[in-house]
Amino acid sequence: MDVLDSWVVACLVPLAVAAVLSGLDDLIPDLAMAVAGLRRRVPAVRPPEGPERRIALFVPLWQEHNVIESMLRHNLAEIRYTNYEVFVGAYPNDPLTLEVVRGIESSLDKVHLAIVPHDGPTSKADCLNWIYQAMLAQEEACGAGFEVIVTHDAEDLIHPDSLRWINHYMQEYDMVQVPVLPLPTPGRRLTHGVYCDEFAEFQTKDVPSRTLLGGFLPSNGVGTGYKRVALEALAAAHSNQVFDPTCLTEDYDCGIRLYRLGFRQFFVPVRFLDGLPMATREYFPQRFRQAVRQRTRWVTGIALQGWERHGWRGNPASLYWFWRDRKGLLGNPLSLLGNLISIYCLASWTAAAATGRAWTLPAAGIDDTARWWLGAALVSQGWRMAVRCACAARIYGWQHAMGAPARLVWANWLNAIATVSAIGRYTRARLARRAHVWLKTEHI
Which of 188, 198, 334, 358 is most buried (most C-beta within 10 Å)? Predict the structure, then answer.
């Protein structure tokens, strides 16, 4: 036990220092949003009336026959916008999805099937590129072009006013991102609750603070509107491919590339109507393994491929956001280690109190310096937890937010395992010189 106590004490100060430094880093978007909140008001909840640009809505699919019909029929009935059409991409070796989409195409004039010319799954970006080609063919056939492209996934509930807001902000910007928020689920579903907490905080604070601080805006992959000229510029700069087919997070990649090409980006603030946020809603993975799989793709694409492709080049704001996007490579495993040490400390203290013996851990070498760092780390983590709870309460209510501390521990396990998995998969792919393929998430 003495050896274990000594090892735990040796880890405490480095972990506390890391927690304090990370907490100071997190204060920057906190302060940016606080200042922004004092300076400007969120616009009215209804988008202003104006001429409707012609919008093409892209939906890439791989084995989504269980959800795509209800997604399309529901959204096409609810969207309060008329001048748009939907292009749905599917693979020839996915006959069930093809059958469903063909049935929808025959009954809904706005829906067009785009068949990828090779078997899948390849990558979401590759599927989107072939959808883009199908849109070009449709333009040639009907003689009318699309001015805006909006991306969505097969499980999305599109807000009725989403396209109207994108159309409105396209007067001034080249890329417009609508908020994305998970649908609420019962508190017992810890994994999905983690998504609710994280997205409530990110969409309320982290994502909008990027543009406030002068950095690039990564697309969320869904609810993202692009001006046609912006996507044409991406294609011209990358072998006539709008989306990079070798990238697992093409949405993040597009945001960086558009920013570097000088296109203007905007995140639509989270606003409420009848008590509900104007956002793309969906169910994220509710099982631990599925969540790890999705987060492995995110870490691989954002942190590892992002580092490989874009390095550390750019203005100070871009470098700062690169740091924030990649610090999880170290921070996620350290957070899990911190949780394990905290559990050990609590267990050893409980055992000492129950048996009437002295708690041996302080005697193993916790001096005044260590106590200072541990206290600072406790304050830092308390502030972080308060911010997350406040953001979660704004979207889901205080009853949900009260469970955020317990879900944060669960999130540390999810993110640490996904990070280790991503590093392993990325390293194996590089050594074998093979491309990364679409890590599909099961949707409901």
Answer: 198
Distance between CA atoms of residues 199 and 221, nearest Å: 14
Sequential pLDDT tens for the chain (444 residues): 577 777 877 788 888 889 999 999 999 999 888 887 755 666 667 788 889 999 999 999 999 999 999 999 999 999 999 999 999 999 999 999 999 999 999 999 999 999 999 998 888 999 999 999 999 999 998 888 999 999 999 999 999 999 999 999 999 999 999 999 999 999 889 999 999 999 999 999 999 898 888 889 999 999 999 999 999 999 998 878 899 988 889 999 999 999 999 999 999 989 888 788 999 999 999 999 999 999 999 999 999 999 999 999 989 999 999 999 999 999 999 998 988 888 888 888 888 888 877 777 666 667 778 788 888 988 999 999 999 999 999 999 999 999 999 999 999 999 999 999 999 999 998 888 777 666 666 656
Indicate the angle between helix axes 190-201 and 368-396, nearest 10 degrees: 90
Q: Say if residues 330 and 420 touch (Cβ distance below 8 Å).
A: no
Report pTM: 0.91
CA 229 to the chain's CA centroid:
25
- In the block, residue with structure tokens 């912006």: 230
Distance CA 364, CA 372 (A): 16
Alpha-helical regions (H) of 40-123? 68-78, 95-107
Strands 175-177 and 224-227: what pairing? Answer: antiparallel
Question: What token pair was written down for 312?
Answer: 């550390």
